[in-house]
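Hey, I'm writing a tutorial for new members on how sequence and structure tokens pair up, and I'd like a real worked example in the thread rather than a made-up one. If someone can provide the structure for the chain below, I'll link this post from the tutorial.
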Amino acid sequence: MSGSVPRVRPVTRTSLADTAYEAILDAILSGRIPAGEEVSEVSLAADLGISRTPVAHAVQKLAAVGLIDRPAGKQPRVAKFDRDEVRELYEMRELLESEAAARAATRLNPEQLEALVAEADKLAAGSRTGSWAERAIDFDIRFHDILAAASGNSRLCEQVRQYRMLVRAFCRSTGRKENLSDALAEHQRILAALAARDPVAARAAMADHIAIRKRVVLAELYPTPETHS
């Protein structure tokens, strides 16, 4: 009918680029495209069933956040981090997320806090079988995202999310149930500080959590003779 509003928005180049970005990001973070592997825009476009242009935009965006390396004159590759780079990533997380947790202690919505506490308690009490590990990982992602948003500083929130995205593949590769159980207990200590509306305790609990996760990741991904002694 003439003059009617279409029910479906036309697909634009921007939306295709966003779709490609999310799909490639998921493949990298899940390990389906592993660190160090070449990134073929032609192959990715064929897999996604779209033209190469939105894929090229997506690869450029992923390079901007550090997940893809684009050396001059060479094929792009999924970024591969050495031990010192991983250590630095976690040190940046500790600086940023400790501040975010301190700020969230006086800003976090009570309903959100109650929901996080309830979900953490349910995970802690649940059997470590079936989909428990996947649910624990999903909770971890949500937990940190909510605290970052509750900081009340959009730039801080964006930086937290960027650094968490860079280490997410490490989190999944070391996501054994023992590690996830330990991380959950650390989350509960952070939540206790948030429930007390104590910025100092929240900052310290978050710093401890990330420092412990850093040690676990470095020990498992880059073992040294001391690690096994």
